[in-house]
């Protein structure tokens, strides 16, 4: 059983979407495209919605994320901090796109985020 929540790409030509799915294992929020300052509020609201539920695990899936800027990195750190103080339910899957992996590596946040491989 799953239930989804989709968002559509931005009308300004930016490419971003998120998809939420509730499964027996918990909540999965998949990010697609570009996460920058213009969309971090949307991501934060969706994670907050999942946190307000009873899911034992919340997975933030970055597999299809093609770009992340400093505001996106800051959001990931904030979500991780909040999760640690709220039961540690958040897990983040690694991005497959080298651009995103490189930003995470260069900023040094890779060891601070709850990656789930």
Descriptive notes:
This protein has 117 residues and is α/β, with parallel strands linked by helices. The chain has a single domain (3-107), classed as STAS domain (Transcription Regulator spoIIAA, 2-Layer Sandwich). The protein contains 3 helices and 5 strands, in the order βββαβαβα. It has a 5-stranded mixed β-sheet. The longest helix has 15 residues, at 70-84. The chain is globular.
Question: Main traits of this protein?
Answer:
3 helices, single chain, alpha/beta, 117 residues, 32% helix, 5-stranded mixed β-sheet, 5 strands, Transcription Regulator spoIIAA
Helix and strand layout, with pairings?
Elements: E1 3-6, E2 16-23, E3 26-35, H1 40-51, E4 58-68, H2 70-84, E5 90-93, H3 98-107
Parallel strand pairs: 3-4, 4-5
Antiparallel strand pairs: 1-2, 2-3
Summarize the structure.
With 117 residues, this protein is α/β, with parallel strands linked by helices. It has a single domain (3-107), classed as STAS domain (Transcription Regulator spoIIAA), CATH 3.30.750. It contains three helices and five strands.
- What is the string of SSEs from the N terminus onward? EEEHEHEH
The fold-level CATH name is Transcription Regulator spoIIAA
The residue ranges in which pLDDT falls below 50 over 5 or more consecutive positions are none
CATH architecture level-2 label: 2-Layer Sandwich
**Helical proportion?**
25-40%
The total count of helices amounts to 3
**Rg computed from alpha carbons, rounded to a whole number of angstroms:** 13 Å
